[in-house]
Amino acid sequence: MKIPFEQKYRKKYYQLLNEVFESNYLSEGKMVDRFQVEFSNSIGIPSLAVSNGGTALLSIFEYINVRGKDVIIPANTFWATVVAARRAGANVIYADCNREDLCLSLEDLKRKITRKTKAVAIVHIGGHIAFEIEEINNFCRERDVYLIEDCAHAHGGKWNGKFGGSWGFAGAYSFYATKTMPLGEGGMVCSNNQKFLEWLKYYRNYGKHIKNTKVSYKLKDGFNFRMNEVTAAFGLVQLQRLPNILKWKYRLTRKYDQIFQNRVKFPKGMLSGFYKYIVFDYDLKQETGKVFAKTDFGPTIEKIAYDLPNSSWIAKHHKCPPIYYGWEDSGKSISELKRLLLK
């Protein structure tokens, strides 16, 4: 299967590439600024582009200074969340998830939080917003603990009109090749904390910041976490395509909802971006990768079974039928899909 990218959008991308070449800037030009503005407008939160989603997470952990402190992270996550916290010097504490949404459990968070806890990372799994985000946000605020939102799956996901990154101190988006909005690589940090965003402008660029052609320096520990102009141009086009990608996924999920009764079901006001369609206890003929079925980066199998029972259950019982944009069998009827997918 070829990468789905319609001709009209290819033409728009080529036009933007011409602008990049004419500008004479492959990096540190105006295309990144345009992409940041458009992305910020789309989710309603000020945002800055970085080289990838892992960098987005690392920058947040670095800024709030988790070195030597505990950061609570759900065991059901990709190891980028954990590696970013550890690289920033944190001691990672694993918390369990809920079976209903595969996201961080408030109940287990209450058991794991201590005076040493500096931050809590919540991961919006599969494209939807964590069902307990409001309660977890309030819980963290009451204890003066930072809430960080890992939005790597969350493109297009929202709850009562609010997108991923709207609740915590900051959110981190990924544009990796498999995401609902793929750029190959790239990331975005969103936050309403302007002091943090100003710091990030230096942090992502070796400690320098270019404004109106003037360069200023502030950080000694900045590094190269920039997004380049070509990637940003692609991002502008993919952002335009995203509504059509989501509509395509919604059409397929309406069929899936009639096939799979035992699945993640959303509360009122929740709209998923459907990075994954998650079902339980089905024997599938075709499926895509599971949502973090094992945690080689951290807890042992014994610890998962004893201390993280829901994460253990999720790993064994969930599967994901195909929902990636462009899947060639998506147009089949419900009965045909049922024969194609179920053993």
Write up this protein.
β10 and β11 (about 215) form a beta hairpin. The strands form four sheets. The protein has a seven-stranded mixed β-sheet, sandwiched between helices. It has a three-stranded antiparallel β-sheet with strand order 7-6-12, with no helix packed on it. Strands 10-11 form a two-stranded antiparallel ribbon. α1 (about 5-25) packs antiparallel against α8 and α8 packs across α11. With about 350 residues, it is an alpha/beta fold. It contains eleven helices and 14 strands. It has two domains: about 5-235, Aspartate Aminotransferase, domain 2; about 240-340, Alpha-Beta Complex (Aspartate Aminotransferase, domain 1). The longest helix has about 30 residues, at about 230-260.
Structure summary:
The protein is an alpha/beta fold and 343 residues long. It folds into 2 domains: 230 residues, 3-Layer(aba) Sandwich (Aspartate Aminotransferase, domain 2); 100 residues, Alpha-Beta Complex (Aspartate Aminotransferase, domain 1).
